[in-house]
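User: Hi! I have a protein structure encoded as tokens and I'd like to know what sequence might fold into it. I'm fairly new to this, so please keep things simple.
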């Protein structure tokens, strides 16, 4: 049960990557997808968000959406926009965003290792989103959205990838958001074997983003095994980066109302755990435990009133957990942030301005700015077999869809 395997990727034909590459399917609304495909007939969004080609009132989970995705994929193959590599290989994938660069490996990650817990989770999945990915994979007979995995940095992996990137990239494009995407295929069998062995020497891998895609791939593999009796180790499309190159941004919260309280009463209740200070400027927390609060046009800095007690539970001490147990649940009445429509989540890429806009528009009453969850925290939670609160991490830069897909043979 090797952690990873090479595979024959489905990729844009030479010179076509810029036309095909698209943002991840799950970071935009259907309306945004429709705008992004205008004038871009070969954008991979025609596959990953096929409802963009259908009427605006289209149910995104209806059978015709998955059928359109398959038709669009078939059209890209027929026109030679996408081609499949002739033999299995790995691919080095580098992302560059401003001064941030991260270099990882595109591989087929083992479903068996995922099922056994060697590819570790830290989030629950939602049935509707998982079902959607199952239907998408089955309709396409391919996995097109990569799962973002992390390994503990090790020279046996990082040094060969760094050496390979000293040569010219086969794909080198910059997306509309300014992120640069580079790709190097690895065809040398000895290099492939060394990388496979280096990954196999690891204790395991960690899912950074893509829990629904991984869970869906496991279900599809089980479904296919029950039909054709296959016992070989299936894989799912993954890009695997070293943990010390990751950039996690804050994942902030906005809340619709004060649960019937007035502002003075709410601020008084915060004093049980925090020193509350007005701020003349937006508050970006300087470190763990600190919060920014935006309420009625005013920013506040919330500083812990006492040191946090030590805990053996790696989830309990996360800032997102403390916000939930100290404020959202007892003060604002939000018991289940996964299902309560009074709360929403704003990725740190939108900045503090994204919080201000949601409150000043009147849509939300208040916003909380959090310090980012650390990579070591994520791995500690996964190692413990525990689960983080929803929307605990926001990784940047994002992987592109369409640069490499995995066909189910």
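Assistant: Happy to help. Inverse folding works backwards from shape to sequence: for each of the 409 positions I chose a residue that suits the local structure. Here it is:
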């Amino acid at each position: 049960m090797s952690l990873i395997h090479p595979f024959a990727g489905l990729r844009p034909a030479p010179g076509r990557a810029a036309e095909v590459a698209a943002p991840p399917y799950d970071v935009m609304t259907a309306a945004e997808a429709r705008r992004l495909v205008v004038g871009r007939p070969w954008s991979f969004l025609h596959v990953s968000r096929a409802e963009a080609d259908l009427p605006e009132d289209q149910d995104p989970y209806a059978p015709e959406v998955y059928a359109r995705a398959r038709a669009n994929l078939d059209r890209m193959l027929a026109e030679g926009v996408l081609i499949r590599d002739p033999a299995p290989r790995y691919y080095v994938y580098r992302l560059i965003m401003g001064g941030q660069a991260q270099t990882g490996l595109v591989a087929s990650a083992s479903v068996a290792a995922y099922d056994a817990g060697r590819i570790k989770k830290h989030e629950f999945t939602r049935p509707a989103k998982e079902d959607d990915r199952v239907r998408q994979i089955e309709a396409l007979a391919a996995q097109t959205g990569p799962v973002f995995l992390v390994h503990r940095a090790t020279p046996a992996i990082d040094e060969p990838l760094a050496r390979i990137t000293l040569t010219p990239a086969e794909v080198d494009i910059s997306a509309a958001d300014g992120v640069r995407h580079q790709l190097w295929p690895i065809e040398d069998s000895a290099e492939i074997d060394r990388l496979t062995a280096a990954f196999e020497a690891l204790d395991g891998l960690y899912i950074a983003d893509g829990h629904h895609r991984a869970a869906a791939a496991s279900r599809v593999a089980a479904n296919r095994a029950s039909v054709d009796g296959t016992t070989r180790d299936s894989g799912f499309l993954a890009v695997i980066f070293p943990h010390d190159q990751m950039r996690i941004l804050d994942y902030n919260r906005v809340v619709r109302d004060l649960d019937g309280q007035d502002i003075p009463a709410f601020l008084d209740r915060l004093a049980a755990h925090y020193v509350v200070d007005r701020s003349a400027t937006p508050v970006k927390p300087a470190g763990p435990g600190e919060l920014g609060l935006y309420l009625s046009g005013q920013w506040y800095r919330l500083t812990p009133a006492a040191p946090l007690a030590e805990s053996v539970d790696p989830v309990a001490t996360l800032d997102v957990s403390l916000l939930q147990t100290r404020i959202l649940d007892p003060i604002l009445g939000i018991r289940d942030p996964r299902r309560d429509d009074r709360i929403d989540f704003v990725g740190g890429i939108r900045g503090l301005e994204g919080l201000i806009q949601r409150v000043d528009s009147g849509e939300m009453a208040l916003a909380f700015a959090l310090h980012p969850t650390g990579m070591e925290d994520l791995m500690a939670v996964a190692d413990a077999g525990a689960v983080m609160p929803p929307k605990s991490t926001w990784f940047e830069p994002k992987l592109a869809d369409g640069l490499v897909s995995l066909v189910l043979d």
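A useful reference point when you look it over: The chain has a mean pLDDT of 94. Feel free to ask if any position seems puzzling.
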